[in-house]
Amino acid sequence: MSEKITPVPSCADPSDPASISLSEALARIEARVLPVHACERLPIRECLGRVNNEAVKSPHNVPPSPNSAMDGFAIAIASLRPDGITELEEIGTAYAGLPFAGSCGKGQCVRIMTGALIPDGADAVIMQEQAEVDAAGKIRIDSDHRSGENIRQAGEDVRQGETVIEAGVRLNPADLGVLASLGLSQLQVKRKPVVAFFSTGDELVAVGESLQPGKIYDSNRYSLHGMLSRLAVDIIDLGVVRDNPESMRDALTRAASQADLIISTGGVSVGEADYVKPALEELGTTEFWKIAIKPGRPLTFGQIGASIFMGLPGNPVAVMVTFSQFVEPAIEVLSGARLRPPALFRARALDAMRKKPGRYEFQRGIATLAEDGHWQVRKTGKQGSGILTSMSRANCFIVLPDDNAGVEPGDEVSIQFFDWSR
Ligand code: AMP
Ligand code: MG
């Protein structure tokens, strides 16, 4: 029998006892990362996407007073006879912003517009479509109405003193509108975290330069820049760092002096030119994680001074996967936002997918809505961790949990959307 090499564990193995699970890695990130402390008070328009620092309590009722939900006639329900038509006298008009000064007595009605204050004495608004005007100008209304009809009550949206936006909420456009409805012009939000990032590799060439044999263009800094630009963070691009200990130390020292979070790509595996880990060990504290996911198993996590460091793998797809699964949650925690589990949808697989149990896999897919109303998903071609077009053609990850042992067409899978433009 011929001699064989006994391989040591590697990223080609479906499972590795030294690997931690996805949820374990997330728990460690949550435990280690501390939210930024500082806040700033900003005009509410500038608060979009920012994290609210203190619970916002309403200074008053919204709406402040009862008003009409319809164009029609404000009446006292007691004016209506129990059966048949009642004729009422129109005594004036209430406009939005221009209340009717008098009071609406029995047998009377006030012409009213949407948003106008309900006149004294009235307790219902009859839609104009449900009323008739007779030749003498009397308003005819039948008995089919009830007190409170078409009236927006004071405080029915927000009660005075009620908490409208909790601390730790990332503000969306509706929140800006709600703040404005309370009359608030400014809000205190957490400051933006500062994120510095760099690529590592002697093979990397910047775009615009010519490509010599053995070199490749640095793509990671561009996909990273794109992903970071969608988040409320300040970005520092530290360029390409060459594969030697001094350059790595310099880059990390520079980054740590400016950033809350430092992200590198490449140089975290076990090759001879992988300098990230030793440099981090020298300057700060480090944990090297092998995470049971594919792509993106190796990840270096650590701290230099007050800065968090996340060393992502070098392969371009692994960079984007680990960013979405680990860096984004880290940024959420850093930002002071509440961490939420990713939104997963169920979809019918249109392709077969080979997989061995042992790790979480993030295949790249294109999901569409089928005619029967269910999501369906197909792979975006070859799925190697260097095949970045598998990401750019995708709108979702096909998330195959560790125990999954392969997918047949028609099987149900989970998908996680990341891009609605595809
Ligand atoms: P490494 O982890 O440094 O061994 O890199 C793994 C693979 O990813 C190698 O094929 C690298 O050439 C490639 N790679 C690393 N960094 C980048 C980058 N910034 N852009 C494109 N490919 C990269
Ligand atoms: Mg490298």
Keywords:
Molybdopterin biosynthesis moeA protein, domain 3, binds adenosine monophosphate, Molybdopterin biosynthesis moea protein, domain 2, 6-stranded mixed sheet, Molybdenum Cofactor Biosythetic Enzyme, Chain A, alpha/beta, binds magnesium ion, 29% strand, 422 residues, single chain
Structure description:
- It is a single chain.
- This protein has helices at residues 22-32, 173-181, 220-229, 245-258, 276-283, 316-335, 389-392; strands at 39-43, 56-57, 67-68, 72-75, 86-94, 108-112, 124-127, 131-133, 139-141, 151-152, 163-165, 186-190, 194-200, 204-205, 216-217, 234-241, 261-265, 285-290, 293-294, 298-304, 307-312, 345-349, 360-369, 375-379, 396-400, 412-417.
- The protein has 422 residues and is α/β, with parallel strands linked by helices.
- The chain has 4 domains: 22-37 and 191-334, Molybdenum Cofactor Biosythetic Enzyme, Chain A (3-Layer(aba) Sandwich), CATH 3.40.980; 39-60 and 164-190, Molybdopterin biosynthesis moea protein, domain 2 (Alpha-Beta Complex); 67-152, Molybdopterin biosynthesis moeA protein, domain 3, CATH 2.170.190; 345-417, MoeA, C-terminal, domain IV (Beta-clip), CATH 2.40.340.
- The strands form 7 sheets. It has a 6-stranded mixed beta sheet, with no helix packed on it. A 6-stranded mixed beta sheet has the order 16-13-17-21-20-18, sandwiched between helices.
- Strand 20 and strand 21 (307-312) form a beta hairpin.
- The radius of gyration is 31 Å and the shape is elongated.
- The two termini are 53 Å apart.
- The relative contact order is 0.13.
- The model has no long low-confidence stretch (mean pLDDT 96).
- The structure holds adenosine monophosphate (AMP) and magnesium ion.
- Magnesium ion binds next to loops.
